[in-house]
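Reviewers of the previous submission asked for a worked example of the structure-prediction workflow described in the proposal, so we include one complete record here. The input consisted solely of the amino acid sequence. No template or homolog information was supplied to the procedure at any stage.
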Amino acid sequence: MSRQDRATRVLIGTVGGQGGGVLADWMVKGLINAGWQAQSIGLLGLSQRAGSVIYYVEARPQTQRAPILSAYAVPGDVDLLLSQEFLELGRLLQGGFAHPDCTIIANTYRYYGTLEKTPAEGGIYPSGVIRKAAETLSSDSYLFHAQEVVARAGLSLLSSNAVLLGAVVASKVFALAPEPFRTAIEEAEVGVGDNLKAFDLGYQMMREGTLPRALFKENEVLDWQQLADQRAQALPQRRRGEYRSLLDQGRSAVPPLARIFAEACYRLLDFQDAAYVRDYIARVQEVHTAETASSGVDNSAVTASYAQHLANWMSYEDAQRVAQLKLRPERFAKMRGDHGVRGEDPFWVDDFLAPDPPQIYGMLPAPIGRWIRAQGRRWREDFDHISMPMRVRINRPWGYLTMSLVAAMRHLRRHSLRHHEELLLLQRWRDAVLLWLGHDAALGRLAADAGRVVKGYGRVRDKALDDLWTFIDQGLPLLEQLAAAGGDVATVGDEALKLLASEAGKGSACLYLLRDRLAAALPTAGAAA
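From that input alone, the workflow returned the following structure tokens.
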């Protein structure tokens, strides 16, 4: 088909809530303003990452003959792939829509999917796979973090869609003048000021050849001194000297763990107080002393695992911690920046919470909390799982006061039922680490690394704790038998912990894996004998 008769085809991949409909409308109305015949259709999924959303646009310069436009994209026959989120580009590539002559314009921003967030760790899909596919399948790809581009220009993050549109209009697929599309943005009356500036920015960068071919926003890896400087600045002025002193104590106790202490001392000081941090350092030093004594040299491999997971565990997110984090001034400042709220313009923040009884009676002094729990369980068997949804307008007087009162209860945390029970759990874990460390360094390291399994809250946390004790009480004895049979304890143990960490409630699957590996090793050991 000749180019004159063939429509230009654009396939847009996005996530519900990202403004894909607005972007498609801008494009279609801009094309119509430019004298083109254009139409779009949306194939809608569910919002907020529960399902993909796809828009398909076909357009052709105006002719006397009415065009026949299709409502469906055909794999391998699309001129431009446009993605507002990087995983959605991966879906389009997997669908076979890319080809060497098509143009790809994609935002490398990630909005993590449900299947990525479900695992306790390690569930994030690697962006490098999508990048390699895009650069292999297309000779004209632009993969850049649109939010980062507009942020550098001092624009609202919500204008990221406009910078994508500007790049599309100036690309080789259309190469049109900007005015018709600027008119479409103005007529939409949505964040007009920043959206026009962002559109002009994307258009100019594409025309000048300065639009990044690959721009991924990566987290910078800091050494312990850089990390300490960053964490100190995040604390109030009055606590910075205290933080430095505590960090020096930790480094003196176990020098190789300086980077872990830089993060742990900040987190625990922010969570509670200096005495709490000193308690943490003493716990770490105890394990380090035991590790050194068991090996005869100054080792810290087991201690490093223990110190990292202990810091996470000791900063558990109870109601007081959640309230504290929600009241942070930087949280409201970020919201103002993300949504372009300027000066004294009013805005409201509604937090939707659903605490259960353990989160409430867990804040109370231990005797009172136990009494309430006992009475509640007599009243209802499912008392601990009752959900109490509430809506708190947190930046208004009543909501702010409510959350401030909850946050203030952190000063009573050491006397609370929740903290008392956390200490018992920590002691049980510590005893297991020391016990297995006395048996074998590899088993001690696995006992310490098992602390990574403890994540989440409510029922998820209960399942995670069950997994931890399953591994320690039943899994480690199986690994000890595997060691006696000549098996690779470290590799199999890490495999088992990876399974447990992937999702709470995998204890049975972990034991099945360990028994299977042990059964495979026993015949080999017998034959060798």
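Strands lie at 8-15, 36-43, 52-61, 80-83, 103-107, 140-144, 214-215, 350-353, 390-393. We consider this example representative of the routine output the project will generate in years two and three.
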